[in-house]
Amino acid sequence: MKRQRLVPGEIMPVADGSDYGKGYYLPTNSEDGEYIFDVQIAKQRYQGGTGCTTEANAKAYVDAYRARKPKDRVLADAANMTWMQGASKYMTDKGSATKTADMIRVRFHLLTFRIGPNTKLQDIDDELLGELIKLRKQDHRWEDSDKGNVSGAMVNRSVTDLVKRVLTHARKRYKVPLPNEPDYVEFAEAEEMRVRVLSDYEEALLRNDKRKDLLEFVDFLLLSGLRLSAALIQWKQVDFREGVIRVPRLKRKKNSKNPLIQEIPITPRLEVLLRAQVNRHETFVFTYQATKTQRIARTDRKMIKGQRYPLTSEGFSSSWEDLCWRRGVDDLRIHDLRKTAGTRMLRATGNIAVVSEFLGHCDIRMTMRFYAFMFTDDVRAAMMATETRYYEGMQMPLDPTASPPQDGGCTCGAGRPTFRPPGGLSPVPYHPNVAAGAS
């Protein structure tokens, strides 16, 4: 069983059905039979060993412990709460339940090393946060100097955002006084938005590749708009009768009415694609065909040429890089296919609310931030529409030294008086593809 990595001091939840309401319990894996107490006083949680091996003694210990923990002591403990305690309480109360808990723990370890585990939360101010950000900006991506320094977005997620989470949680839930709480907005680094989608030309290049089994999955990503982790579906998630694919949502806003399961409608094109996968594997929908016989050292699994095996996240990521390299497509990530799906639907419908639901976003603001960007073709179309509306029929003067319009006249052919300079006008109406000096 894989051992879960915890932030120092974080409590591992015990899933043995124990009754926490009594304030004590006996862990199922206890070797010495000692009861553990777990009480909450004034919204602050206290845990530890009782030193008792009988339920009666454990109950007496908890009662005595509650009696000697008055509210003023709790407030005193809150004022002296350290960074280590605050981070541990955040992970125990909230962070462990998120899908990115493991990644958050890794970032907390680096942040705890630089802040200091015994630093009081009250001592974290603008100066300390600024120093933490300065140190983080000097780190290299993937600890490789050739890849450059970490991005502004990574600085925000691994420093400013984590400090804000811990301090906000401590202030709201445990009433920790924070007179010098940093100004997080002031220290937020500028994030460069990645604008990259699959072009029609690049899509044509990819479709000419020989690996048709991979291209079927690429089609599914473009049609469904799912993330890679969610797109590796099983047959039990596909309901041809109801015409939907059911996938779990990655996240959901607190108190949101959105269901935990997102339903992707099966369109005619999606149905043809899915039915083509029938009888290839009994559990997983998408598979790939082994190109050679080999043994995978990491999993000690033998693969036979010509046989089909379930597509995995790691396997497709590696094959995707090879596919893009063979077809000459540069800087196109797998997640860019999801952005391509969202962008295409936005351009086809103009309804960003529908696009937000299609992509399974918990907040429409996320859709507006990442998918409502404009491209060169959109700007060109807008400029041409403006020229058609205001400059259609306009003629350009040949003489650059011609005098300006007189008596409020203009050179626009939109039903207004037309000024004709002494040098004369070009007989050719203005068009973006026609030079001003044409005759």
Q: Structural class of the secondary structure composition?
A: mainly alpha
Q: Tell me the Rg in angstroms.
A: 31 Å
First-residue to last-residue Cα separation: 82 Å
Beta-strand segment tally: 10
Shape: globular
What's the domain count? Answer: 3
Percentage of residues in strands: 5-15%
* Alpha plus pi helix count: 16
Q: Largest sheet at a glance?
A: 3 strands, antiparallel
What does this 3D model show about the protein?
The chain has 16 helices and 10 strands. The chain is mainly alpha-helical. It has 3 domains: 83-187; 200-365, hpI Integrase, Chain A; 374-439, no CATH class. The strands form 4 sheets. The chain has a 3-stranded antiparallel beta sheet with strand order 1-2-3. Helix 3 packs across helix 6 (152-173) and helix 13 (335-349) packs antiparallel against helix 14. The chain is globular, with a radius of gyration of 31 Å.
How does the SSE layout of this entry go?
Layout: E1 24-25, E2 36-41, E3 44-49, H1 55-67, H2 71-79, H3 83-93, H4 101-115, H5 126-137, H6 152-173, H7 184-187, H8 200-207, H9 212-224, H10 228-231, E4 238-239, E5 244-248, E6 261-265, H11 268-275, E7 287-289, E8 294-296, E9 301-303, E10 308-310, H12 313-327, H13 335-349, H14 352-359, H15 364-371, H16 376-391
Antiparallel strand pairs: 1-2, 2-3, 4-5, 5-6, 7-10, 8-9
